[in-house]
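Case study 2.
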Amino acid sequence: MTMPSESRYPRAGIGYDVHRFVLGRRLVLGGVEIDHDQGLDGHSDADVVLHAITDAMLGAAALGDIGTHFPPGEPEWRDADSGDLLRHAAMLLRKHGWRVVNIDATVIAEAPKVLPHAAAMRRAIAACVGIRPDEVSVKATTNEGMGFVGRGEGIATLATTMIVPTG
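Prediction:
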């Protein structure tokens, strides 16, 4: 296996996460708390946007996945701020000789509307990773009424990232 510091080529990663809605929790997407009648169910704060980005980054660097680094059954990750998980993943990439070039995330949800919060999400994500907000894209689509997302039962996110060697 080639060590990251020996690689001369950029790498891409893809991440996906999904959580169902639940009453009694706050909704956090892309590191931003959003006013909504339901939050997302999960061991941590269930931020599907940051979870998908974390997986994309770890995958691009061949460093495993979010569940490997932050097992969902571990008490220390109960209600964890997903921004902390993303910052840790960014630190791991730097430690292994990688730098994030850009992030692109698509939130798939019937509600809430993401566009009014996209700029704040871009800033929060960029701050966690150590890149500029203009190197982060956050957009949204619906599932056209199909499946669990289309029925308004949860939210999914698909994310990609590009990393390059630092050396």
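The chain has a mean pLDDT of 93.
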